[in-house]
Amino acid sequence: MACGSFNYSFFANSVGKEMCEKRKTGNIAKVATCSLAVQGNTSTTAKPVVEVPADQNSTFINLGRSSTKRRFETHRCQETIEEIIGNGKFGRFGGKFVPETLITCLNMLEAEFRSVLHDVQFQAELATALRDYVGRETPLYYAQRLTEHYKSKSCSGEGPEIYLKREDLNHGGAHKMNNAIAQAMIARRMGRTRVVAATGAGQHGVATAAACAKLSLECTVFMGTKDIEKQSSNVLLMKLLGAQVKSVAGNFKDATSEAFRNWVNDLETSYYLTGTVVGPHPCPSMVREFQSVIGKETRKQALEKWGGEPDVLVACVGSGSNALGLFHEFIDDEDVRLIGVEGAGIGLDSGHHSATLTRGEVGVYHGAMSYLLQDHEGQIVGPHSIGVGLEYPGVSPELSFLKDSGRAEFHTATDQEALDAYRLLCRLEGIFPALEACHALAFLDKLCPTLRSGTKVVVNCSGRGDKDAAIVFNSKLT
Ligand SMILES: Cc1ncc(COP(=O)(O)O)c(C=O)c1O
């Protein structure tokens, strides 16, 4: 199946293996040894595009380079820079559906993205920021009591082993910081002085405001009035971090449109810092690359903890950045099940949900083709979820492709199930997860009884739930 220049070789595994071999033996043109976070293959005959200065090794080897011997075991195989960037197409999805005036700007952004992937200095600075500022690597935590909980519910007393990828422990409280810091660095490198962003749950807003404070960039965050009300603690943080928070009637989709408009009026000095894997090319590829550190670390940590790969990966899906961040590393590993969980809101048939992949139809929104929540006339239908960060009517073009190809499966969890999952994790593990992440956790109820004993399940705990504590506390227990 054609898919641009992307490495979706799981359709023909032998082709995938051959590609990987070629990369290992240096028969493929460019090897992105400086690609974010995991560096490798100097133990092979491959010629790196760039040499890593010896004194920067410690930042590069941060992930998955614990010994020369293990470099290939700890990483799928190196992607070429062209594969990382891609051509913006994921099968029929993706693209660059924008007015002509924006094309130059997006082309400049793509050129800059390409350039930072080649730039040893940039990569070294980013690796240092991820380690010392963001706090990576995040733990792969064995949730023992949660595991026991599901074992105790089964007749045999057996069940899967559950691990949490603790993205909630990142500075700022969510996976959003992985991308925000990297893109703020790109904005500075492009000579932009002002950053514009849109946020739903406020986590991307907080991450962007913090990164801008650190890099001395002016920051304006657009946020829907409804979300400002629901996620007021994050609004305070953004303001304390020096950002201007502009309220927009509506929710995240309306804030995104307004942020776009604001950016378009000031293309010379402003940088639009997209928080997730949607929008026109190169935004989805760029955010996915900056989030793929989650999966790369998971591979390395799984190898250290149980000497293998995870069997099942579970992540919530709003627009798709935490899910792709975890999945991308494992797309070629056919044995690893990839499960995305969307918000079923108050029920899939109620019309009040955010299950874009499960219930949407293909269309174009915010510059790209993907599944969309729309009516029969093609008008956008407003999404709903108790996890505010899941409320987006579109979704990642890459996840749309993974759905169509059958490589990833998508399920849903209701608001109530997410609330129950929040309380359960608090009581069993002393961890309060973001309501968005609770959708992934809630799906364990359905998943665990179907898995054989000992199956290794990794759930992406994409953020912390301080922002949601009042919502959960005040909601009625069922
Ligand atoms: C903690 C958390 N998880 C998940 C999401 C959903 O976004 P995405 O699907 O891009 O990971 C958000 C969005 O704000 C979030 O704040």
TrEMBL record:
<comment type="pathway">
    <text>Amino-acid biosynthesis; L-tryptophan biosynthesis; L-tryptophan from chorismate: step 5/5.</text>
</comment>
<keyword id="KW-0456">Lyase</keyword>
<dbReference type="InterPro" id="IPR001926">
    <property type="entry name" value="TrpB-like_PALP"/>
</dbReference>
<dbReference type="InterPro" id="IPR006653">
    <property type="entry name" value="Trp_synth_b_CS"/>
</dbReference>
<keyword id="KW-0057">Aromatic amino acid biosynthesis</keyword>
<dbReference type="InterPro" id="IPR036052">
    <property type="entry name" value="TrpB-like_PALP_sf"/>
</dbReference>
<feature type="domain" description="Tryptophan synthase beta chain-like PALP">
    <location>
        <begin position="135"/>
        <end position="463"/>
    </location>
</feature>
<keyword id="KW-0028">Amino-acid biosynthesis</keyword>
<protein>
    <recommendedName>
        <fullName>Tryptophan synthase</fullName>
        <ecNumber>4.2.1.20</ecNumber>
    </recommendedName>
</protein>
<dbReference type="Pfam" id="PF00291">
    <property type="entry name" value="PALP"/>
</dbReference>
<keyword id="KW-0663">Pyridoxal phosphate</keyword>
<dbReference type="GO" id="GO:0004834">
    <property type="term" value="F:tryptophan synthase activity"/>
</dbReference>
<dbReference type="InterPro" id="IPR006654">
    <property type="entry name" value="Trp_synth_beta"/>
</dbReference>
<keyword id="KW-0822">Tryptophan biosynthesis</keyword>
<dbReference type="GO" id="GO:0005737">
    <property type="term" value="C:cytoplasm"/>
</dbReference>
<dbReference type="InterPro" id="IPR023026">
    <property type="entry name" value="Trp_synth_beta/beta-like"/>
</dbReference>
